[in-house]
Structures are given as structure tokens and as C-alpha cells.
Write a structure and sequence with these properties.
single chain, about 475 residues, alpha/beta, Arc Repressor Mutant, subunit A, Aspartate Aminotransferase, domain 2, Aspartate Aminotransferase, domain 1, 3 domains, 7-stranded mixed β-sheet, 15 helices, disordered N terminus
């Protein structure tokens, strides 16, 4: 058995009953998941036999069996006949998304309409049949070729972001662009303001680089200017991380008036704004980005993974001219360059106009999915922005861990707010529900109705 934090006990995992809440099987499953994903229980650790754990906790054997089964369904543990139950490999290093059985309806992971990928095939063939196809397999243009940067400019300008060639770099996806930005423009120990519920990958990246994230309260329009002002007065903040268009996970669309207020505070306190605007293509025409409002203090990251094709792993990085040297050095030093072939396919999609047709298709599909969501969940209208996911509030008597596990037991995967929370204890609990991931509209409706049934069985009143 691998050495772990529980080695002083005869059992490899020894939860305390005093910390468990009814229903016990859900609480045990949630506790086990926390200890696995945090790394406290290393991969391949053998868990206590079900009967032994039941005796230790003074609970029925069936309670432990149900808890283990839920964790097995989530891919957290695996059973070996005659040997016992073990922690699955690689879980602590994974994101919140696990491979799932085809019998589970996926409403957790945000899949960006993979059926639109067929439009990418033509561009890929065009590029591979082109006269410069051999060069695409060589080590060259690590920051993007002239044609690729030109296409990036065209794409960014279609979103209202006016920049020059000297202000744009190509990165191998948004995560790499964020890594370059943090490494090049921040130092270990720096503090960055974020929403109370924040994109998990950014949390992980900041933790890896020893950058402290400071939680700031939000309202229905996004980060609260009053809360940010108070934070800036009390703490030495160096930057702000925001997803202004359909923020992940809360799905909030920040109106231009709120963007102006936040930008004014960023200007007053000399803060660098990291604008992760992966869903900017969903914003109404004329929506001003932070880069447009505050170009001298904003680094804008525009990934094409949701708008065009997730598999190409390309993002455009727009920045003030004074940051170019640091960003280029950061990108080259850690070798986070874009694959030439991927960059050229994206350039072909944009220059041919196919990219804009894909966006129109995805917006139309999202609007249909949103209608289905609203037909099942009678939530208050927000705005006209189509969404890839929604954020449902839960009552005080249910935790997001419980609802996530209850839904999974019924065959639906959603993500609870505990995965995104900046603080271990939050006043309110939520679940994020993706409407784009089911392969068909019928499957989406079925999954939503199952989820609504879970809520009804547990007396859940919900709202966005």
C-alpha cells in the first residue's frame, strides 16, 4: 500500500462520523471524493473493506456499499474482485471532468457543439494540400506566422478589439495564455482579485505559481465594485481576473456599465486586468471588452475552443505594447508555442469566412438549447445572451456535493459549486448545468427532467 496521511491508522481511510450528515451515504461519498481529489489518498490506495468501515462508523453495510458505488460511478475508485476497492490512478491531477459511462447524461462538462467540427475538415484539407504544407511540420513561427497573426487581428476586430500586429501573440490555448501571462507579468506572492466562484483551471494555475487569489463578492451583474473597492483598500492587489461574458461557472454576463465601473477601479489602483473572454462571440454586437475600455491595463485572452474548435488548441493574446517583451520571453522560455498546423487551420477558417459561419451555427444551437432549459426550469429571464451553461441556486438544507451525487445516482452528471468556490464554506450552494453537452435536444430534455425530479424529491427550490 502506498504511504499516505492515514498510515498511522489500521485502516487506510478513517472518516469521523461526527463530521457526517444525513443521508450518510452521500456524505461519506463526498468526504471520500475530497480526500481523493486533494491527494490525501494517493492513487491505488486500498480502501477499507465495506464491512469494516460500516462497523467503524456504526452504520449499515448498505450505506457504505452505496457510497462506494457512487464513487465508482464517478471514476474515483475501482473494484477488483477478491481484492477490494482502490483509489483510481491520476484523479488528484485531473480537472473536475472524468470519463463517464455512456449511460450517464453529461450536463457537467461543457462540450462546445462538436457536431460543428465537420466545418473544420474542409479548412484542414485546404491547408494540408497547400504549397507550404511541409513547413507546417517544422519548428518555425513559434509566435504565429504573418498570415496567422493577420487572421487573429481579423477575428479580434470582429469582436470589437482593435489592435496592431505588435500587440498580438498566438498561444496554445487559453490555459497556456494564462500561464504565460502569470509567469511574465506577476511574481510569486502577488495577489489577484477573483470572483467568489472561479474557473478551476485558473485556481490551479495560480496555486502552482504561488500567486494568491483574493475572493471578491459579486451580484447578478458580476464582481461588485463596492466589494472590489474595499478589497483594494485593505489588500495590496496587483491584478483582477475576469470572465466578463458568461463567466464560468456562474454564467453571468457583465453589462457594459459594470465593466466601466470595474475598469475605473482598476485604473485608480493601477491593476492589471486579465480578461479571459472565451465566450465573447456570444455577446451582443457592440459590447465593449475590458481591452476596449482600458487598453493600457488589460491583457485580453480569446480562445477559439468554444467558438470554433476545441481540438485545435489556439488562443489569441492581445496586450498593451509595453508588455510585449515580457510576454514573448515568457512564451519562448517555457515553450508554450502554438502548433503551426493548428494555427494555419484556424487562419484558414477565419480568412475563408467559415469561422463566422460556425459561430452563427453555434449561437443558433445555443438559443434552441436555452429554450429547452427554460421550458423545464422556470427561471427569471436575464438577458438575450445565449448560454452554454446555467447556474442554479440550492436551498440551505442541501449542499452542492449532495445534489451532485444525487443527480449522478439518477444518471445525470452536473458540477457542484464546491468545485469552484474560493472559500471552503460558502453562504449559498449551486450547481452548474451545461446545456450544450448532450448529443441531442431530446437527451438534454431528458437529463433536465431527471435533474428537476431530483430537486423535487429533495424539496429544492431553484433560480439562476
Amino acid at each position: 500500500m502506498p504511504v499516505n496521511s492515514f498510515e498511522n491508522y489500521p485502516m487506510s481511510w478513517k472518516p469521523q462520523k461526527s463530521t457526517l450528515e444525513k443521508p450518510y451515504y452521500l456524505s461519506i461519498a463526498a468526504s471520500l471524493e475530497r480526500d481523493i481529489t486533494s491527494g490525501r489518498l494517493p492513487e491505488n490506495t486500498k480502501l477499507p473493506p465495506q464491512r469494516e468501515l460500516a462497523d467503524f462508523l456504526d452504520l449499515n453495510l448498505s450505506t457504505i456499499t452505496r457510497a462506494y458505488k457512487l464513487c465508482e460511478l464517478k471514476g474515483l475508485v475501482y473494484a477488483v474482485t477478491g481484492r477490494g476497492t482502490f483509489v483510481s490512478p491520476g484523479i488528484s491531477a485531473q480537472d473536475t471532468f472524468l470519463e463517464r459511462s455512456s449511460s450517464v447524461i453529461e450536463l457537467g462538462m461543457i462540450k462546445p457543439f462538436y457536431e460543428c467540427n465537420h466545418s473544420v475538415f474542409g479548412a484542414a484539407r485546404q491547408v494540408l494540400d497547400g504549397p507550404d504544407n511541409r513547413s507546417l511540420f517544422e519548428y518555425r513561427d513559434p509566435l504565429g506566422s504573418r498570415r496567422q497573426v493577420g487572421a487573429a487581428l481579423k477575428w479580434l476586430r470582429s469582436l470589437g478589439i482593435d489592435v496592431t500586429r505588435e500587440q498580438v501573440l498566438l498561444a496554445a490555448g487559453a490555459q497556456n495564455a494564462l500561464a504565460v501571462t502569470l509567469i511574465a507579468l506577476f511574481e510569486a506572492g502577488d495577489k489577484i482579485a477573483v470572483d467568489a466562484f472561479t474557473y478551476t483551471n485558473f485556481k490551479g494555475l495560480a496555486n502552482l505559481l504561488h500567486i494568491q487569489l483574493i475572493s471578491v463578492d459579486a451580484d447578478a451583474q458580476g464582481m461588485s465594485p463596492a466589494a472590489l473597492l474595499q478589497t483594494c483598500r485593505n489588500t495590496e492587489i496587483r491584478g483582477i481576473y475576469l470572465m466578463p461574458t458568461c463567466s464560468n461557472p456562474t454564467s453571468i454576463f457583465m453589462p457594459v456599465s459594470r465593466r466601466q465601473e470595474i475598469a475605473d477601479l482598476a485604473r485608480q489602483f493601477h491593476l492589471l486586468v486579465i480578461e479571459d473572454d472565451i465566450y465573447s462571440f456570444l455577446a451582443p454586437a457592440g459590447t465593449e471588452s475590458f481591452f476596449s475600455i482600458l487598453p493600457e491595463q488589460t491583457v485580453h485572452i480569446c480562445s477559439i475552443s468554444k467558438s470554433l474548435c476545441a481540438g485545435l488548441r489556439v488562443a489569441f493574446l492581445a496586450f498593451p505594447p509595453r508588455y510585449k517583451e515580457a510576454l514573448v520571453a515568457g512564451m519562448l522560455n517555457i515553450n508554450l508555442k502554438t502548433v503551426s498546423l493548428n494555427g494555419e487551420i484556424v487562419a484558414e477558417l477565419i480568412e475563408s469566412g467559415t469561422a463566422f459561419e460556425i459561430v452563427r451555427q453555434k449561437i443558433a444551437l445555443a438559443q434552441k438549447r436555452d429554450q429547452i432549459f427554460r421550458s423545464v426550469f422556470d427561471v427569471p429571464g436575464q438577458d438575450a445572451v445565449p448560454r452554454f451553461f446555467y447556474w442554479l441556486s440550492l436551498p440551505e438544507h442541501l449542499t452542492s456535493e449532495e445534489v451532485e451525487l444525487l443527480a449522478l445516482q439518477k444518471g445525470v452528471h452536473v458540477l457542484g459549486s464546491h468545485r469552484f468556490a474560493m472559500q471552503s464554506r460558502q453562504k449559498s450552494a449551486y450547481v452548474r448545468v451545461s446545456v450544450t453537452s448532450p448529443e441531442t435536444e431530446e437527451e438534454l430534455r431528458k437529463g433536465l427532467l431527471i435533474l428537476k425530479g431530483v430537486f423535487a424529491e429533495n424539496e429544492v427550490s431553484f433560480f439562476v
